[in-house]
Amino acid sequence: MYFLYTIIASLAVFFILKWLKKRRYCTDLRRLDGKTIIITGGNSGIGKETAIALAMRGARVIIACRDPDKAEKAVREIKLKSHSLNVLHMELDLANLSSVREFCKSFLQREKKLDILVNNAGMPGVLEWTDNNFSMCFGVNHLGHFLLTNLLLPRLKECAPSRVITLTCSSYKYQKLDFQDLNYNQLPFFTYCRSKLANIYFSQEVARITEGKGVTSYAVHPGFVQSGWTCHYSILFRMLVQVIMWMFFVPCEIGAQTVIYCAVSDEAAKHSGGYFIDCRPATLRPFARDAAVAKKLWEASERLVNLA
């Protein structure tokens, strides 16, 4: 009898875990021939799976990341899996604003088109600092992408209709921004939450300032994904989290589906400035829809990156 109960309990756990990990797939088969796409952090995780999927649809895909060796390896894998040779790498370190400016200068000289910008790269909650003395989370997740998008925005407008997709996380709901301490870098999880909330405000403000100019903007929560973010922590922590991720998190291929959806879907284009989960629009907490806060963050970010 005990053996039977064990089997029933095991099956119940199996089906619960399977249900928790069930996610929608992007079913839109639109081609992207002739389109040029930048994906930050496209050498691994969700970024690489997004690159494979969009390259398979005929796009010219540029993965932007800081490690040339990892990037070249990723380019070979993406080409092999997508059966496309139109994939390349350009060096970009989002933790260094000079690198962001150099990347944009080089890209604008080399490439005549930019149709989709995927702000995918991100840092987990680590108490480190960027080369410009910003907290690593806020500096990479928000400020690096903020400067990158602004410098590339004229090209996106020239190539309209175009799209900006920024990855965020549902953990935004656990924190609010403190404009007296945007560079907050104390509790790792809260630091991460604030950077993800900044991503949402940023995406909304991109939609506002480009309204009527052919550029649409989307904030995407890809779900909780089995990515490589644990590499920034100790071996013991990695081992523990790997078990949890295996049980409850989804593979990167599934995590990329909502990004792909926002890159190709006509339906998504009707919701510029929206927040997407599981290939459909989702509702944000009221404080995360505050247009005045989004504008204030934009103006503060302009000063921090010396954009004005």
Structural write-up:
- The protein is α/β, with parallel strands linked by helices and 308 residues long.
- The chain has one domain: 3-Layer(aba) Sandwich (Rossmann fold).
- The protein has ten helices and eight strands.
- The chain has helices at residues 2-20, 45-56, 68-82, 97-110, 136-158, 188-209, 235-248, 252-255, 257-264, 291-304, and strands at 36-40, 60-65, 87-91, 116-119, 162-167, 215-221, 274-277, 280-282.
- It has an eight-stranded mixed sheet, sandwiched between helices.
- Helix 6 links the parallel strand 5 and strand 6.
- Helix 5 (136-158) packs parallel to helix 6 (188-209) and helix 6 packs across helix 10 (291-304).
- It is globular and about 50 Å long.
Shape: globular
Oligomer: single chain
Q: How many DSSP E strands?
A: 8
Count of alpha and pi helical runs: 10
What is the share of helical residues? 40-55%
Biggest sheet, strands in spatial order?
Answer: 3-2-1-4-5-6-7-8
Please identify the structural class as seen in this structure. Answer: alpha/beta
**CATH classification, class level:** Alpha Beta
Spans of at least 5 consecutive residues whose pLDDT stays below 50 are 9-21
